[in-house]
Polysaccharide lyase family 9 protein (Cylindrobasidium torrendii FP15055 ss-10), 393 residues
Amino acid sequence: MFAPSFTFLVLLATSAHAADIYVSPTGTGSGTITAPYGSIQSAVNAAKAGDTIHLRAGTYKPSSNIQITKSGTSGAPITLRSYESEAVVLDGENLPGTPYGLDESLPNGERGILHIQNANYWKFYNLELINGPYGVYSRDASHNYYERLSTHDNYESGFQMQGTASNNTIIYLDSYLNRDPRKNGESADGFALKEGSGTGNSLRNSRLWNNVDDGLDLWLFESPVTIEEVYSWGNGFNRWGFSDFEGDGNGFKLGGGGSDDTIVPAAHVVRNSIAWGNAKKGFIDNGNTGAMTLERNTAWNNGDSGFVFKSSGSSLKSNVAAVNVGSQVNLISSVKASGNSWDVGGTWANSTFKSLDATTLQGARGSDGRIKASDFLLPTSGNAIGATTREDV
Ligand SMILES: *[C@@H]1O[C@H](CO)[C@@H](O)[C@H](O)[C@H]1NC(C)=O
Ligand SMILES: *[C@@H]1O[C@H](CO)[C@@H](O)[C@H](O)[C@H]1NC(C)=O
């Protein structure tokens, strides 16, 4: 006969059961699947380590932003997700700061439809965040995981992390058409990890497009960030009729900022990523003196130069710079370059590529969340040079 041990009984009595908490845009209940909450904040307030908050389909329009200021644990994270694969939109239009007037300030606590601060061990899945004072805004938050978020048409950056930030993973992000009327386009990026430090952060298999400032911006972030399979295009154009337009328009702005003596070098790693059709540069160190690693990236048809590394002894290997309107590359002599298009020579023109058609890359993701593979910007030579969606590098 089964005789439960004393230890087993104590464990049973003390281990909290992970709860499933439900929210619906029309809910009036207390968080069960049959009587969901109507407010995401109520669910966050009720959640404990290990719990999962399920958002039922529809559009949520909160009048104050969702404050996430508690933590899960490494073994029992808190999850905020769409229920199964239902379509969930968090619309920030009713929040303060959408937008504030030109040159007005946006208080920290109001930033983000999701404002995540001092909150660790969260997981977020399959959410669309629009019209917010930032879509996702995270400050001093670590060990968080974001999968399949879409952040677009926000009044500041789509997705921003700041402050002390370690071991955050962002995968399958789509961030587009974000703009900041408050600053005439000076700083709304697709993805920004800025003004802070902490190791182990990564952005993967993500698309950043048509944002007013840069696609990706690591301004004043002082630790290495890993960027893989990130596609950045169409950033830095004045699509909103701003008067004194301030948008920068780089595909990947890899750190730097401030006067020389305030720049802390950060050895970012960028692999298998593409910048094209941006208003200015494809990939730029922006004054970051860190020894970065760039492998198998492609800068094509940008409005200015392809790769600009004038401050750093970075390592550039097997990248392609072609058909950019400015110089293909602008490199300081301490850059270690090998196997790049400009090293191997030959013709690098539109006719060098199997396909100039980005439709598949820009289209629906696969059911696993990944961007679908295509021949976009693969060299006709078949050589392993430049970015490819067809295989891991
Ligand atoms: C980040 O994760 C790695 C691997 O799990 C771990 O070694 C490291 O201590 C973590 N960093 C922080 C700041 O917790
Ligand atoms: C290359 O192709 C792109 C896309 O069709 C086009 O915008 C660009 O003008 C072409 N550039 C050259 C130099 O042919």
Notes: The chain has one domain: 19-305. The pocket of 2-acetamido-2-deoxy-beta-D-glucopyranose (ligand 1) is lined by residues 166-167, 200 (CB under 6 Å).
